[in-house]
Structure formats: C-alpha cells, structure tokens
Amino acid sequence: MIPIRNIYYMLSYAFQVLNEQGYRKIATEQFHNVADLCAAILIKGISSQLKRGLGQEYVSKTETLSALRGKIDVSESIKTMTMLRNQMVCTYDEFSVNSRMNQIIKATVRMLMYANISKERKKELKKQMLFFSEVAEIDLNTIDWNIRYNRNNQTYRMLISICYLVVKGLLQTKSDGTVRLMDFLDEQRMCRLYEKFILEYYRKEHPEITANASQIFWQLDNDMSDMLPVMQTDIMLSRGDSILIIDAKYYSHIMQTHFDTYSIHSGNLYQIFTYVKNKEIELADKPHVVSGLLLYAKTDETLLPNQTYQMSGNKISVKTLDLDCDFEKIAEQLDEIVDEYFV
C-alpha cells in the first residue's frame, strides 16, 4: 500500500508544475484517498487557469442565420426550407471557451462529485464550475485524449493529465453498457505513473546522468524488420561509457509460481535481456558497459527478488523499490542504484 502523500510526491516529479508555490501546500494536507488528492490538485490548477483566463479555440458552429456568415450549407438550407424565412443555414468558426480541454475538465469534475472526496473540495469544485457555464457537457467514454500542446495551451498539460488519471481510475464500464465508479488507480495506471516518476526523479536529482526513455533498435543481419515490436525502454541512464536500462514494473504480485516453485516473470526477464543485448551490439565498436535492471514496486509478498545475474557478459539485476515508507527512504533507494552503477 502506497501512502497517499507519496503518490503526491510521485505526481510532483511526473508533473514538475506541482513544485510551484501554489501547489506546495497540498503536500502538507491530509487526504481520504487518491481521488481526494487529485481533486485538491485540480482545484489549485483550475484556480490558476481561471486567473489566466480559460483557454479558447476556434469551434465549428452551425445555425440558421438571417445574415450570411462563414459557409452556407446549401443542402441543409433546402431541406429545412429556411429561404422561405429569408434565412440560410451557415457553418462558421467561433472563438470560444467551449474547447475540448475545458470540456474534459468539466466532465472530470462532474464525475468527482460522485466520488469519495471531502465536502469542502466538492463545494470548491462546484463554485469553479460556474465559470464553465458556456462549456458543453460531453460523454466521458468518447474523449479523445490525443491532444497537441503549444505555447497557448501549455498550462493545460498537467490539468488534462490529472483528468486522465481520474477518469481512467474512477470510471469502469459494466457489461450492460452503464458505468460505475471503481477503486481508484488500477495496476495499469499506477504502472505508468511509477515509470514516469522514476524517470523524472533521475532527471531532476541526478543531472550528472543522462536519463531518457529511449528506443533501442533491433540489431538485424538484414533489412527485414517488418512486424517487429518497438523496443521502448522505460528508463535508460547513461554516463560516460556506462549504460543502465531500467524496466519499471508495478504489479500486485511480483513472483510467478509453478508447482510451489517461485521464479521471476519469464517475460520480464526475456525483455530486459533482449534490450541489453541489442544495445550491447549497437555499441560494439565503442567502449561501453551495458547493464539491465528489473525494478519492481515492492509488494507485501513474503518472497521478493533481490538478485544479480551475469548473462552473456552483462549484469542483469532484479530488485524491488519500497514505496511504503517516508519519501526520503524512497529517494535513498533510487540514489543507491546510481551509486552502484555509475560511481
């Protein structure tokens, strides 16, 4: 079980904006659950956005007008016989706060109203929604999360990311097509946050090391690469001629069993070994030391891996990261990895 305060710290690394002055007080507050925490972050973020002004974008609008505007929809005008009233159906673009991002925020807040968050936060969110009166209601199941950010809407990046976390964590479709609220943050969402947190921690706290989520290319004997999966690392740390590839895993159960024999998940081990060996071949003509690390979030299982193997000339380790402790202890564990591989 991860303390809620630690989830805030993980979010703070994943979204650096949470380290700004307006958000820091959140770290000292008490929360019933993660939904309550996300509600508090949204309240701060929406308040900040309202001070700047809600973002606007050009939205396509169609209506029947007496004065021509934009493009005339001839077929619809004939169909509805608007000409008899000296009107035409026109389609035009209007600069409006009824943007997709504002719609997502409004829909997310509406859903949080039914979640287990404090009355004070529900009241504050309700007050903020008064400023979203011109924003349309949307179906949460139809949201397109593929959003492009630019200078004009960059301040929405964190807000929309928190909304995504809330929607995917609280919403579940039942077999009859209706929806219900489920336990917040399933394994899949926590895995993404876990990966992002570790990557951003190393970027911020260890600038002497290059930290990226880099792709590794298949080292092929010919040009045939059709249908090969992309080798996308979670975290790749490098300094000088040393490289550490980290595969961050967040599971409810770390070990697999077969006839009462415990072992590391074979697929995870094959994956990190493949990453390491392809990177090794890629750097064959340069001085290099390539290592791999499977870093599991620690569970309450009695048997946990803490092993280091030498495989075909490379160091492959399997360790756990304890998230159920003071954050200073979490940082120490991550720092120890740097000391082991780069000192």
Into how many domains do the coordinates divide? 3
Structural class: alpha+beta
Write down the CATH topology of the largest domain. Answer: Trna Endonuclease, Chain: A, domain 1
DSSP, total strands = 15
CATH class of the largest domain: Alpha Beta
Order of helices and strands: HHHEEHEHHHEEHEEEEEEEHEEEH
- Could you describe the largest sheet, including whether it forms a barrel? 6 strands, mixed
Brief write-up:
The chain is α+β, with helices and mostly antiparallel strands and 343 residues long. The protein has 3 domains: 4-54 and 99-185, no CATH class; 57-96, no CATH class; 191-342, Trna Endonuclease, Chain: A, domain 1 (3-Layer(aba) Sandwich).
Report on the architecture of this protein.
There is one protein chain. The chain is an alpha+beta fold and 343 residues long. The protein folds into 3 domains: 138 residues, no CATH class; 40 residues, no CATH class; 152 residues, Trna Endonuclease, Chain: A, domain 1, CATH 3.40.1350. The chain has a 6-stranded mixed sheet, sandwiched between helices. It has a 3-stranded antiparallel sheet with strand order 1-3-2. It has a two-stranded antiparallel ribbon with strand order 4-5. It is globular, with a radius of gyration of 25 Å. 27% of the residues are buried. About 2% of the residues have low confidence. It comes from Clostridium scindens (strain ATCC 35704 / DSM 5676 / VPI 13733 / 19).
